[in-house]
Amino acid sequence: MYAAIDDTDNQNEMCTTYIISQIAIKSKYDIIGYPELVRLNPNISHKTRGNGALNINLGKGKGNKKIVGKLNDKYIYSYENIEEEPEADEVMDFIYGIVSDYYVREDENTNPGIVVSSGRFHPQLYQKALEDDIKLEFIENYLDGKAIYRKINNGHGIIGASASLAWPGEKITYELLDYKYPHYNFLQRDIKLSMASIAEKYKSTFNNIDHANSYAAIFPKFKTPVIFGVRGVDSHDLLKAYNDIKANYNINDDGFIIFKTNQGTDDHIVNEPEYLFDLGSYSITVVISSHPYNIQGGHFFIGAKYKNIDINLAAFEPTKEFRKIVASLIPGDVVKAYGSFSSGTVKLEKLKIISLSKNLKKEPPVCPNCHVKTRSKGKLDYRCPICRRRYKNPEIYTVPRGIKEGFYEVPVIARRHLSMPLKLINYFGEENDMYNWNSGNR
Ligand code: ATP
């Protein structure tokens, strides 16, 4: 029986993943498979942080058993298969009790939603939750007769909760989250950086540290029960990284849970759609149509054409060194741009330079008799300052571009949870054609 929850926290407190850890440790049921942390549309305005929704499958387990966590010195196991499913109402009462104990009660903008369902939902709902801003009534109609749900406050969390159960899990990564309730003491920056370096030393881990910007990405930006989170594609390596960190640093944690996630999968990206919609995220092949320019605050823009539509590509200040790539593009370059679309602008997450055009410059020719550069006297009129001889044609030369074809990505410090890092492109493959049947068709 799947139990899904969302919208239990606010900027300053709690994390819905922690509530899952409490469900896992307090449950009289077995856990089937991994608990799931599913990231949804990164472009909607009413998210708290990374727009993550959670679910866990509960029942009587059978088959192989593996460790998915450890809390208060007790290992948490998960079974491969389910033998017997509990009653939905019984699971709902249990989950409702835990959510009621932990959600941020004093914040009226926290709107928890719980969905309990014996089956998963159609991936089309997941795709919609990655591209659109879904209305509450839509989800209530959707759930009618399919699953039971409970709302606290306006219960907006049932949207994310339902969408998490529609994730087909075609591309999978993992995150090990380490907890201390209500939050951990201050850790010094250099300690944080060396802990994050341990997390990133595996071939299978990603987005854990930004060396260039000295940023330890395993730590949350806000005070929550999460001490750190290590991301990777191999759950065994996450356990090794956790043990390694614990062996090297005296971290007094409550314990950890490993989540199966869609982080780093580019699932939000629709490849080469017919139309671009606000709130959508795309990968599109464009021809650069203007020279780059920057505005106050260090944000860089460049004009481009996608299927006869004029758009802009943007690299904002937080994308740091990536802005140099945008700044070195010129008209005629062909690039594949990845990012979210809003008001005619793609906010770049990564870029593949497909072909570079020649940067040709004109200069007055050198006079062959006097060996000095001629002077321009108007259009196609160059005159030697010594012998006064006139020439019509300028000298054309190619300026080296100083940039190569290939992929470039924003640094970890500016990376979105869903964005596929280049480190994973060989692992997952480049094109995201999985759900294109839905694109441009809303
Ligand atoms: P955290 O990352 O800490 O879990 P969050 O960023 O996920 O926080 P929430 O507090 O969970 O933020 O709020 C997100 C809200 O947006 C939830 O109510 C969820 O149901 C809703 N939501 C998620 N995706 C969509 C969508 N595509 N359309 C409309 N609402 C959505």
Please characterize this protein's 3D structure.
The protein is an alpha+beta fold. It is built from nine helices and 24 strands. The protein has helices at 16-26, 88-102, 123-131, 136-143, 157-164, 189-200, 235-248, 323-327, 425-428, and strands at 2-6, 30-39, 52-71, 74-84, 113-117, 148-151, 173-179, 209-210, 215-216, 226-232, 255-261, 269-271, 281-288, 293-295, 299-306, 309-315, 334-342, 345-355, 359-363, 375-376, 382-383, 390-391, 395-399, 406-409. The strands form five sheets. Strands 1, 2, 3, 4, 5, 6, 7, 10 and 11 form a nine-stranded mixed β-sheet that branches. It has a five-stranded mixed beta barrel with strand order 13-15-16-18-17. Helix 3 (123-131) crosses helix 5. The longest helix has 15 residues, at 88-102. It binds adenosine-5'-triphosphate (ATP).
Question: In a few lines, what is going on in this structure?
Answer:
This protein folds into 4 domains: 2-164, Alpha-Beta Plaits (2-Layer Sandwich), CATH 3.30.70; 173-261, Aldehyde Oxidoreductase, domain 3 (Alpha-Beta Complex); 269-358 and 400-441, OB fold (Dihydrolipoamide Acetyltransferase, E2P); 360-398, no CATH class. The protein has 9 helices and 24 strands.
